[in-house]
Amino acid sequence: MWGAYGLYPRYLAKNGHVNSFGERLQDCFRFSLNGKAPPLNSDVIVALEIYARWLSKGAPRGVKLTGAGYPKQDFKPQRSPDYTRGKEVYVNHCASCHGPDGAGQQIAGRNVFPPLWGSQSFNWGAGMHQLDNAAAFIKANMPLNLSSVLSDQEAWDVAMYMNAHERPQDPRYTGNVTTTRAKYHNTPMSLYGTIVNGWLLGSRPAQ
After folding, report:
1. Which of 23, 41, 81, 144 could form a disulfide with 160 if both were Cys (CB 3.0 to 4.6 A apart)?
2. Distance from CA of residue 153 to its chain's centroid?
């Protein structure tokens, strides 16, 4: 958040208008958390904005700061991401925390390791559902405390495996998977509306 605050207001193609930082935070609730966004004037949004501003104190505005975001430049797989190879990576490196079924782990009803697919995961509108975002994040941060243990190809493969499962519907759903893909997911980095292992993803979202 220290790297993001100074980049707003900013136009986002995701919703087609110039967004304030508060609106960007609302999208995190709506898509990444698959929840209901608090109002812009709510204590939650205001507190997060103030905290992000404090974190970025002294940093230049309108400049992408070194270390912000994911290391995506020239981060390409040598081979097309593969579901089967990704499943092997997941079993060996991810399932111990995120569970064999991708449901994560809870203690006293609270997530300690987040779900990666299924009814409690991020929805089809979240940035993490895109293969390049997921692969770059995984490469830089996963497994926990063992970042960069995975090869670039393994990160892409396990991102493919993770994102080839159903999750909650995109809140922008038009009523039709094909038209929703055409409007919001028309990129090879999105598996929404594509067929993987004989299944049309997004056609029966997790509830």
Report:
1. 81
2. 19
Q: How far apart are the first and last CA of the chain?
A: 30
CA-based radius of gyration for the chain? 17
Interatomic CA distance for residues 68 and 150, integer angstroms? 21
Q: Which pLDDT value is given to residue 146?
A: 87
Q: Which of 28, 134, 132 is nearest to 73 (CA)?
A: 132
| pTM to 2 decimal places | 0.92
Q: How far apart are CA 145 and CA 110, in angstroms?
A: 21
The pLDDT tens digits for 45-90 are 999 999 999 999 999 999 888 877 777 778 999 999 999 999 999 9
The span from the CA of 135 to the CA of 131, in Å, is 6
Q: At 48, list the tokens.
A: 């997060």
Q: What's the pLDDT tens digit per position in 161-206?
A: 999 999 999 999 999 999 999 999 999 999 999 999 999 999 999 9
Contact 158, 86 (CB under 8 A): yes
Amino acid identity of residue 173, one-letter, is: Y
Is residue 57 left, alpha or beta, with left meaning phi > 0 and alpha meaning psi from -120 to 50?
Answer: beta
Contact 59, 67 (CB under 8 A): no
For residues 18 and 9, give the distance between their C-alpha atoms in angstroms, rounded to a whole number.
Answer: 6
**Mean pLDDT (the chain, rounded):** 94
Question: What one-character DSSP code corresponds to residue 79?
Answer: S
> Which residues are registered as beta bridge partners of 26?
none
